[in-house]
Predict the 3D structure of the following.
Amino acid sequence: MTIAHTSRGLAAFALAALPLAIAAAEPQPETAAEATRLNPMVVTAALAPRTANETLASVTLLDEATLRRQDPTSLTDLFRGQPGVDVVTNGSFGKSSSVYLRGTGNESAALMIDGIRLRSATAGGAAWHYLDPRMFERAEIVRGPRGSLYGADAVGGVVQLFTPEGEEGDPQPRVSVGGGSFNTQRYSASLSGGSGGTRYYVAGSRLDTDGTPVREGGDDKGYDNTSGVMRLAHTFENDAELGVLALRARGSNEYDGGEMDFVQQVAGVYGEIPVSETWRSRLTLSESRDELDNHQEASQWEPAGTSVLDTRTRTARWQNTLAFGLHELVAGAEYSEDRVSGTTDFDESSRDNMAVFAQGLLDFAPFALQAALRYDDNEAYGEEVTGSLALGYDLDDSHTLRASVGTAFRAPTFNDLFWPNSGNPDLNAETSETVEVGLRGSYQSWYWDLAAYQTDLDDMIAWAPTDSGLWAPQNIAEARIRGIELSAGAQIDDWTLAAALTWLDPENRSGANAGNRIQRRAGQSARFDVDRELGDWSLGGSWILQGDRYDDAANEDRISGFGLVNLRAGWAFAPMWSARLTVENAFDKEYETARDYINAGRAAFVSVHFGQ
């Protein structure tokens, strides 16, 4: 594909967005739905419902309408280019992926599903690539440290995915059937409803594809994923609530050199009671599983074989919310146990963590103050205390100024601590301190948010020779990350617009690579999403730009930046029936985010949907 073709495509995209820019200059009436989208209610940033303005944090909400319009096959397609978010993939369709929040590592981005933590205790990060976006109703991305609320690994921020919850009323079915490029087939179905205070939601999905090569000249690498989710809740007459939830994804994923069978699972039961008019108490018992069976082909270095790495995390969390007029106090305790099993004989196979936390949400309009403190005591790496302080000031009805400081830590993994013959059980947690200032403007039909921050990371874990000459992980590295993020959105008549710009300076501050950019981090990114409703039709597109990055710490292996255009169209051709077409990488751009791992070219998918 030539540069001229790319330029014409981007120009056409810009021209398509021009009418929106013109319309934005004209006053438009605001509806309740538009106001909600422009200043949405979120819960992840403060452990309590707050509008984006009130969180005093940098927050991105990807709501149900966004997920339905874009209908991505992967969460990473949804996250790529969002403010402060970078994505690195080893190919498309289920291949290993990392999500970097504000330049920190994949293991420093905490993933929650309906309040339940999901990750690998051996690798340290979440397997984003094994989760089907159709299982979720919305995603909240909170950027910046949240260790004082969520404990370990919330250094760059927290991503929380929410499954749908049924509503009172008759059963509501949804069915979707589709397919497209690379012999991809995709099916999903759900049923939701409620009566007499009981609400339910049940759904299942299946994705099966031949995939694409992950290396030049290689064979197609297939992927299949079967997922299911169930939620059931009952609200009693005294406003107490009892609920259960479960999500499970399983399948197989071919890679260059073998095949991986996987399971991702969360399950939980919760009870919440109003102790008094001003005090609500909630207890959640949960379990999450990350399971991998790796069937490796024979090579010149290793014989064929199967290895198993399983993580099981069980958690009990007690959280209390107390209201004092306009002020709130959130306080509680948490106990969790990580247990690993499989074919690797770790020196230790389990560790537990006990924590207590408290947060004050104080409203002294036009000032707001949020202060949080958490104490963790981990069996493997000791005690950690994290805290945060945020101050907000309403300059007027439309503008809110905020400033914050927060600490966080990244827990050493079982691989770091207990891998046979090379783990270091004396490791400490990585620690960080972040300072941030931000300004948000919310208007009749649009909003914008600007944030600047600096994160200093200490005691970072890196492999180095020991006194005995053997290599082992040690707390020796340091880094400094600076960044600026600008996001904006508009809801004007039948137009929906979102834009994000990110500038990042992630710098190594120790060792032979001091002064270099941290490997695989892009310095700049941008994303523009435009959608328009045209009666029974809808049209839209996304333009995603990413700057260059280095594949090595020495900054000698540069990977070029790239631009992607994704297009989409929908048609409501009958009551309750619709069809959707998506074209990903419409101009067939060749790009990679990890050296020698190529991503899919142009891919078109068509689907038919039944239901509201």
Q: What stands out?
A: The longest helix spans residues 3-24. The radius of gyration is 24 Å.
